Amino acid sequence: MDIIVLIKQIPDPEIPPASFKIDPSGTKVVPPAGVSPVIDPYSEHALEAGLRLKDTNTGSTLKAVSLGSGLNKELLKKALALGADELILLDDPAFADLDSAAAAAVLAAAVKKIGKFDVILAGRTAADWDAGQTGLLLAGHLGLPSLSRARKVEFTGGKLRVERIVNGGFEVVEAALPAVVTVSGELGKLRLPNIRGVLAAKKKEPLFWKATDLGTVAVNRLVKLVRLYQPVREAKCELIPGATPEEQGANLALKLRELKLI
């Protein structure tokens, strides 16, 4: 089985709110100094799904693919340390700040350049924009079946078998290969690399593909970001008067009724 896993580099979502800055144009996040990016948590779930498929299907290969501009090579080499056979970085200034539609178009061109594959795994969404569209749009570009919100992915009986999260539980669906699967957090956390994997990854270098390496790709952004801002939160405190606790309680009830909260 030939597996492709899409992994995304994002700003660390755990940065303190005070360190979160937006550039003067109001359309971009300014990465805080000294805070390194991370691999998107949903991408990690997808990578774990790919590694499990590789573990249970002898002779399988796994290629990890990441898209962006100014990608952190050492961060993304974690995929190699965990067992990916190849890491492909689609790194070009033209790939900066892509919306879901444009990202899917570029990824489709990269998948076609890779050639042979049986399954493409991606996160259900990403923790930066939470759009949840790229994987499904990629399936549309490639004309492949898509299975979303997977909590378990198996290859059995010549078909892909997926447990898919639905309201109140899950459903089991099957698809012929090749197919695209978006993976949910219920699949489980990404395993930790061992020392042997880390040392082996240090000796490997990723492949870097520029926009020109993918041929003619229409990078058409369909969404225009008008304004990015942090909401202003205001808190007010009103002291309820009263000479005794009973009087304060009665005044509080009157105030809540006035506000139509009771």
UniProtKB/TrEMBL annotation:
Sequence ranges assigned to domain Electron transfer flavoprotein alpha/beta-subunit N-terminal in this UniProt record: 27-218
Gene3D superfamilies according to UniProt: HUPs
SUPFAM superfamilies linked to this entry: Adenine nucleotide alpha hydrolases-like
Entries under InterPro entries matching the protein: ETF_a/b_N, ETF_b, Rossmann-like_a/b/a_fold
Superkingdom of the organism of origin: Bacteria
Molecular functions (GO terms): electron transfer activity
PANTHER family: ELECTRON TRANSFER FLAVOPROTEIN BETA-SUBUNIT (PTHR21294), PROTEIN FIXA (PTHR21294:SF17)
Protein name (database record): Electron transfer flavoprotein small subunit
Organism from which the protein derives: Dehalogenimonas alkenigignens
